[in-house]
Amino acid sequence: MHYFRFVWTILLLVASGAYAGTQVVISSPSIQAAAALQAVSFTASYQTRNPRDDTLAGLGLRMHYDSSQLTFVDLSDLFARGVQPVADQLDTLDQDGNLATDRVILVSWVDFGGDWPGVDNSPLDTLFTAHFLTTAGFTRTKVNYTASTSVGYSLDAAPVRIGGVTTVPDVAGMTSSAAEEAIIAAGLSVGNRSLQYSATVENGKVLSQSPAPGSSVAEESGVDLVVSSGPIFVDVPDTVGSTRAAALAVLADAGFSIGSVSEQGDAAVAPGVVIGQSPPGGARIAEESEINLIVSSGPIVVPDVVGYNKLTAGSTILEVGLEPDYTRRSSELPAGTVIEQVPAAGSQVSFGDSVRLIISGEPQIYFGSAGVTLLNFNNGNVSFQVPGGAVGVPTLSAWALMLLSVLVGLLAWYRWNAERAVKP
Fold first, then answer.
1. Which residue has the higher pLDDT, 412 or 140?
2. CATH topology of domain 233-296
3. Are strands 141-149 and 160-163 parallel, antiparallel or unpaired?
4. What contacts 392, CB < 8 A, 6 or more positions away?
5. CA atoms of 209 and 194, how far apart (whole Å)
């Protein structure tokens, strides 16, 4: 029986401690700028998160401050129950190494009669508003306070910092360590530091900050930093063969942005279908990178350039995305005129395909100093195999070609005889 009572007592104490963890106390503003002989104030608030806190009977307050920096004026909205007796006296707990100037404000117990304010889990309720006046020699200070409850636990809050004004430095783009050094050098503190992926900012460098650069804030204020953890690398989906709309949707869902979308003729692929992409499918690149697409515009129809001069014909072929390939042939038409094209006009081809343009004009022959072999002679066209350094000479007529052939033959005969003469 005694054992059961002991266990029950322990459970009650644990439950009481659980209730103690349900209170949130904050100060607003918790950091503020101030100058000498200036009125300052802050409000302490709490929130009840456990509806059973209505069993609490009362609350007391201890507030510590430095009288060399602040002069106490009064407390208002005390516990939302009206003003209670307040004592302002020397503090026996050293706050800054100078007991002569440390003071404490004591507020007697407030009897709630078992009715704790805010038991309905309501928003923040006011504990009190403190009013001070900075001294003539004010530089900076802080105020600590503790609200003690009737069941033996305290509602503690972070110190309220009151100090001079400083300017927030611009640390975006700095490394994390350099940014923290700059913040501390400005008389501020480093606040929350979080990581965020970025495709544009290098890993370990600051993406953003709060407060913004140039802001005037109280000394020792915290500056929150968002630091880049670099890009997320993902695989590029292969969109070749997909329609343009489907490819754009797939790339967007994968976290990429669209760069250029160009069209290119392809006789084998229907218009609007992707025939190429850069980077290619399967490549592993940073998320949000640009993907460029090439979409089929269908087959290219070969233009008719027969009768054009060489320059105009070549330009026309290039304009539609094809490559001109020039060949000469003797003709009665003016030199430089296209007398034939392959493929013929109206043929359907793909981007980059070659179109052979046969140009009117005398063909070119080439010969070397020795070892020239006649390969072909047909209708005024002649070709030679030249093992040595080659030079080009235009033919004049079929008769001239025949004469040249004889000369080449004599040259070869002469060389053959010279080689026989030197043999042993």
1. 140
2. Trypsin Inhibitor V; Chain A (3.30.10)
3. antiparallel
4. 364, 365, 366
5. 10
CA distance 80 to 59: 11
Listed in order, the ranges of the chain carrying CATH 2.60.40.680 are 22-163
Residue 357: pLDDT over 80:
yes
CB 42 within 8 A of CB 28: yes
Encoded tokens for 251: 């790339």
In the chain, residues under CATH classification 3.30.10.20 are: 165-228, 233-296, 300-360
Q: What is the pTM of this model?
A: 0.45
Share the mean pLDDT of the chain.
Answer: 78
Average pLDDT over residues 212-219: 87
Q: How far apart are alpha carbons 164 and 156 in whole angstroms?
A: 25
Q: Are strands 354-360 and 338-342 parallel, antiparallel or unpaired?
A: antiparallel
Please, which pLDDT band fits residue 83 given cuts at 50, 70 and 90? low
Question: For position 75, what pLDDT does the model report?
Answer: 87
- The top-level CATH class assigned to 22-163 is mainly beta
Pairing of strands 222-228, 189-196: parallel
Residue 420 has phi, psi (to 5 degrees) of: -70, -35
Closest CA to 286 of 261, 254, 312: 254
d(CA 149, CA 143): 20
| CATH (residue range 300-360) | 3.30.10.20
**CA distance linking residue 90 with residue 69, whole number of Å:** 14
Q: Which pLDDT belongs to residue 24?
A: 64
